[in-house]
Amino acid sequence: MRRFTGSFTQQEAIAPDAIDAAVAVLKSGRLHRYNLNPGETGEVAALEAEYRDWQGSSYCLAVTSGGQAIQIALRACGLRPGDAVLTNAFTLAPVPGAIQAVGGRAVLVEIDQNLRLDLDHLEQKISSSRARFLLLSHMRGHQCDMERLMRICDAAQVTVIEDCAHTMGARWNGTRSGNFGKVACFSTQTYKHMNSGEGGFLTTNDAELAARATILSGSYMLYARHGAGPEEDDFAQARLDMPNCSARMDALRAAILRPQLARLDDNILRWNARYQAVEAGLRGHNRIVPIDLPEAEYHAGSSIQFRLPDLDADQCRAVLAAAAARGVELKWFGGAEPVGFTSSHHSWRYVSPQNLPRTDAVMATLFDMRLPLSFSLQDCALIAELIREAVSEAAP
What we know:
This protein has about 400 residues and is α/β, with parallel strands linked by helices. The protein has helices spanning about 15-30, 45-55, 65-75, 95-100, 120-130, 145-155, 205-215, 240, 250-260, 265-280, 315-325, 355-365, 375-395; strands at about 60-65, 85-90, 105-110, 135, 160-165, 170, 175, 185, 200-205, 290, 295-300, 305, 330, 365-370. The strands form 3 sheets. The protein has a 7-stranded mixed sheet, sandwiched between helices. The longest helix is centred in the C-terminal third of the chain and has 19 residues, at about 265-280. The radius of gyration is 21 Å and the shape is globular.
């Protein structure tokens, strides 16, 4: 039996220039973002300015994680305890977890067979829940029709917060993911598009929201030391109204991220080449249904998904085992119990149970796989062949 021997969790090494920048921070001993010499622009402030310019937003705030960015965004947008927050039924646990953490109530919206938010169901849920917020998760990099979504939400006066943990650098009709809603949240966890272990960004064009978010992140009265924040006058109310949630990014992580940001667009091209190599290898198998990418979407393909709609649960488990025997690490979203980073709304006991038959039907046969840049294109072609073999063995 042929086997793939690479690792699905091994990222590329941190580049020498990023290592040098990190060592310089360590030698200084000044890791806290506000521990600066007079007149000095720290690594975090420099990163915020660079990410703001790259994203094309007015303001950027660097924080400790994508999850903290979401929590801060919800608070800064005015969420009150008990408020309903619409979000995708198919997402990862930190998304409903963030809603719960800030006192909100998650109202789940169905997805379609291509893993995107079902906009017809969204309209129904807006009407029935009277929610004022949508936390839109671009789960696994798949964006819904963003123009139509914004028309729906703007007409209903629903504030859109974009979770762009999987769409850093992606676009919809030429507009960067994150530049549609009122605020966007990004992650720099190891398995995302930039790697600082943990970390994240919040971007917005709203000065008042940016000021509230900055105070929430734990700036004390040092907000003038930020690299992409609003003017001092915008902090007049926020500095006294917002609690300090201590979610600041440190200088070490920022030093590692700045060189990565300079290479991010090139790396997205590399991810997409790997995505296309696997997808091409999967298409044509009579059991495997890849996820269709709309023409309007420029993807950032650091993972790939496919469905096996003809298979039952036992056959799906057999596919997992057959792929593992060939060295291919797949995730399956149809399992009854959460595994690793994979879970479903049925295992989120902090969210009230909700009836989502279409989402459940899609997830029952949905498979997912990481595509680290440590894989070559030849690796990706081999992996696709091994998945085809595994599916044929498990469901002849």
